[in-house]
## 1
Amino acid sequence: MTAVIINGKEIAEKKKQEIAEEVKRLKSQGVTPGLAVILVGNNHASRTYVTNKQKTCQELGMNSVLIEMPEEVSENELLSKIEELNQDPQIHGILVQLPLPAHINETKVIESISPDKDVDGFHPINIGRMMTGQNTFLPCTPYGIMVLLEESGISVEGKHVVVVGRSNIVGKPAGQLFLNQHATVTYCHSRTKDLMVHTKQADILVAAVGIPNFITAEHVKEGAIVIDVGINRNEAGKLCGDVAFDEVSKKASFITPVPKGVGPMTITMLMYNTLKSAAESINR
Ligand SMILES: NC(=O)C1=CN([C@@H]2O[C@H](COP(=O)(O)OP(=O)(O)OC[C@H]3O[C@@H](n4cnc5c(N)ncnc54)[C@H](OP(=O)(O)O)[C@@H]3O)[C@@H](O)[C@H]2O)C=CC1
Ligand SMILES: Nc1nc(=O)c2c([nH]1)NC[C@@H]1CN(c3ccc(C(=O)N[C@@H](CCC(=O)O)C(=O)O)cc3)C=[N+]21
């Protein structure tokens, strides 16, 4: 079988147009969605993502504020900046780019963001709401995966989904969203015995590991749908996912590439969450 390549870039463009329309409508009611991004330190990859987010905000007619802080910034300084943004009526979304330097407590920072402005969907209150199926901000990468599948006409109900990776920002919430849509979910991680026994059973296989070419054709059932979340650099410095694309795409029915797969959807869902927050702020 030769897999259909799910074009994340194209689907993201379509979604962004819809968001831009809604932004226009909100602006005509006097509200311009505003996103604040906090970047601590000078990590090159983080800077690239943050620049991308700023650019997309501008493209969609939203306001964006970039707050840069030096690597040595104290936890207290960061927390007071967040508090200031929590109070700022022009700001509807706050994103603190992760990872943070080791001297800053990530949990404390995430919990200091107002749940109403937590457009990453990382606050424990919002994670609880996601688990119980209430209205909330869904974490952008997992949400982006669900939209990619929906736009590709793939139904999730009853499917066996195997998620490799259990981070708080990708693996865990991805499994939860699939469960919410009535899939049967298996989580695998670094302590899983006989990984392949599990991955070979997947109707939908999600790879969120962070190791280039980790998932090979051997891991994949014929006709499976393969979602590659990984953003890695190979030895040649080229961007690549967690899936050995060339061999797996000969066996899968659908596959997402890297780049132009899940990545562009992550940013798009961040824009969607910021728009949603701005729209909801009117009624608060
Ligand atoms: N496309 C996008 O928008 C985004 C992409 N990413 C990318 O996705 C990838 C994963 O990110 P993230 O979840 O933050 O990464 P983490 O490093 O936080 O998590 C990696 C997960 O993979 C598991 N793992 C590691 N080695 C193995 C192994 N040998 N066998 C099975 N499981 C293993 C770990 O298990 P354990 O828990 O046991 O340690 C862990 O749960 C990265 O490449 C990252 O860059 C991340 C965010 C957004
Ligand atoms: N608080 C927080 N929220 C995040 O959402 C967050 C974070 N911290 N830290 C880092 C990860 C990573 N992440 C990506 C977003 C977009 C692409 C993306 O657009 N990738 C393009 C390629 C970009 C390139 O060329 O480098 C693609 O896959 O086509 C990738 C990765 C968000 N993250």
Note: The chain has a mean pLDDT of 97.
## 2
Amino acid sequence: MKKSLLKVRVMDFITSTAILPLLFGCVGIFSLFKLLQHMRMKAYLRNAVVIITGATSGLGRECARVFFAAGAKLVLCGRNREALEELARELAASRVTEVQTHKPYIVTFDLADPGAIVAATAEILQCFGYVDVLINNAGISYRGAIIDTTTDVDKRVMETNYFGPVALTKAILPSMIKRRHGHIVAISSIQGKISIPFRSAYAASKHATQAFFDCLRAEMEQYEIEVTVISPGYIHTNLSLNAITADGSKYGVMDKTTAQGRRPMDVARDVLAIVGKKKKDVILADLLPSLAIYLRTLAPGLFFSLMASRARKEQKSKNS
Ligand SMILES: NC(=O)C1=CN([C@@H]2O[C@H](COP(=O)(O)OP(=O)(O)OC[C@H]3O[C@@H](n4cnc5c(N)ncnc54)[C@H](OP(=O)(O)O)[C@@H]3O)[C@@H](O)[C@H]2O)C=CC1
Ligand SMILES: CCCCCCCCCCCCCCCC(=O)OCC(=O)COP(=O)(O)O
């Protein structure tokens, strides 16, 4: 049959049957579903009390911008009060017309200090009475060979990336359980799913994060508390500059991979949508890291060989 004749026959079929109205109906229902989802997401975050840790820089700072614009009552956390105050001033000066915005509240504490976490939680609960969303975003990275790394460094990374967020989450949880409402978010990493050489402490802390919050999700379902783990790939932030090395000194280098990473503002917008949609576990990365995760699961032997070869190459370039 000629191509043009086939086209005419197909068009005839479409117009003479109920396919066209059905097609329009499906598109209409889909658009309506999307609109309702968007409205529900906006209502979920409007006036919600949202704690963001690590709001002084990078992803946390951009999350603060997008959650502020969504009408959340923000609690900005970090160690540097001046940086948080500057951000709060900037947010207050920004013009958001769509929703009513709220002056952010600032709390400074070090995630490596359990006493400070308890005091900060008490302050937040006294001020707001409750917390709707806790975003465990603060974190520190690390570069070094296991053989050279002091246990103090391993502990420092675990304290900031794992024990701190766990302690903060545990401090907030009872108030959420009482209300049978709340949402805990953990910003993990692709390195919470796969481990790459010379990142042992960081990858271990992110794997532990994934495991803890997966357990939490299961335990909290009965209280209607949501748990979301987000695993981003590289983001263009100060993470590598602030990373610590095997002896605990600052790495202080903007790695090429980090510099070429996604814009923190774009990742923050994704975080907002993921939280608004109450997703449970999301990988926010390009194809290669996503494939690497599948490879680790489906062909671990091959994945381990690739990582060993990567380690050899990195070691060689360090020695030369
Ligand atoms: N950048 C990337 O490529 C990726 C980042 N991530 C994750 O994203 C999250 C945010 O990192 P990013 O924005 O990139 O990095 P930044 O270094 O820009 O920000 C890290 C934030 O964590 C805070 N922080 C660090 N240590 C402590 C501590 N002991 N107590 C309290 N706060 C602390 C810092 O605050 P301050 O020092 O001012 O107190 C800062 O606000 C981290 O969990 C990171 O692992 C995940 C995947 C990729
Ligand atoms: C079927 C073919 C699969 C090919 C897979 C090849 C394996 C390639 C390995 C890719 C490794 C990607 C690592 C991504 C790491 C990442 O995104 O980490 C995010 C961070 O947390 C960055 O922190 P850092 O301090 O390490 O900069």
Note: The two ends are 67 Å apart (CA to CA).
## 3
Amino acid sequence: MHQHILQLYNSAKKQQRLIIGLMSGTSLDGLDVALCKVSGHGMDTQIDVLAFDTVDYDDDYKQKIKTVFARRECDLELVTLLHPWVGQLHGKMVLQCLAKWKVDAADIDVIASHGQTIYHCPKSQHNQSDFNHGTLQIGDSDHLAVTTGITTIGDFRQKHIAAGGEGAPLAVYGDYLFFSSLIENRILLNMGGIANLTFLPQSADASAVFSSDIGPSNTIMDAYIQCYFAPLHYDKDSLIANRGQINQPLLDELCQDEFFNLDFPKTTGPEVFNLAYLHQAQTTTNTLQLSHEDVMATLNRFSAMMIAQAINQCSEKLADVTVYASGGGIHNPLLMKHILSLCPQLHEIKNTHALGIDPDAKEAVLFAILANECLAGGQQRFGNQAQGIPTITMGKVSFAD
Ligand SMILES: Nc1ncnc2c1ncn2[C@@H]1O[C@H](COP(=O)(O)OP(=O)(O)OP(=O)(O)O)[C@@H](O)[C@H]1O
Ligand SMILES: CC(=O)N[C@H]1[C@@H]2OC[C@@H](O2)[C@@H](O)[C@@H]1O[C@H](C)C(=O)O
């Protein structure tokens, strides 16, 4: 048996494994790195997040990625060069965290790497009959593995598409295994660049679980701030949106995209919800002269309305449901206030801290759970294919040498 297979076999047999979960999201703010002690698998998965850091990306990284990110036309040579470059950079960032945490790389069983999405195009978006759904993450795991010396499991999304899903949201798998409850109906709401949710029925009945992207959370707001308020990256504490007035015609127009009329499950991204989308809506409503503050106030309300609409849709037949939020949007007070005001059945929106997971670390932890399933699980049945949750094992294994 090859020594790498033996090492994986030994990791899979262990009572507890150390898995580093990595997530680099659509906001391009940094690489989320979560050191997780994982035991068990399936519904018995236990996670202890021993350390968490977001390693900020510098302007050079953001510039390079933005050159190709969510663009239909870009320099294919640059894409080819970025694929290994991002993998090596993520590897160096992992080593930086390990040094900071004083953890030996030899003690880590595997890294679970999401990579960097540069393009996502479900059928509903590309409308080309010859093609199925597509998604592309760069930052190849071989480069992470060689850079760190740690076996790396990556490229989780392709199997989901191969098995009939849209390649996202994958959070549902970890949400179901780790956050299901027999005490309450739960909605796990993640508000990153794009918002998504997982509905977990109190019955924990896998066939009743569903998950979907909702629409933009921060992505258009961030793009607007980066365009008009550089060097700011986002509207910290909603300071700018708070100074503006909501423009109703623009708001109504922003809500018109056909994505919002599609049934769950569905996915989207900054390929659709971007500054061009805003510009089109402003042109249609003759609101190009609005102040930046009014635009931000309107965008903030727009994100909140679409998020609230999805929560209300999930909970309309339920006596009670508890929402646990995560992702950077929880730090945007105006967004949170709007969502709460638009969901009259909710008394509060909790965050995943209440369930033992730092809300900023949640997505990185989810990839650690997927890697744990790849290694030591695999018998769990999830929902059904029609709900975009096929029963599959995700991730490809890269060895260090
Ligand atoms: N204090 C704050 N005030 C307002 N917004 C904030 C604050 N802190 C973070 N954010 C928002 O959260 C964003 C980052 O969120 P997060 O890291 O969850 O996104 P992501 O993981 O990159 O996205 P996705 O989940 O869509 O891939 C920032 O770009 C910003 O818009
Ligand atoms: C293609 C892609 O990278 N999608 C991301 C993005 O960010 C949020 C939302 O859009 C979600 O669908 C997904 O990430 C999370 C981690 C997921 O798959 O659950």
Note: The chain has 13 helices and twelve strands.
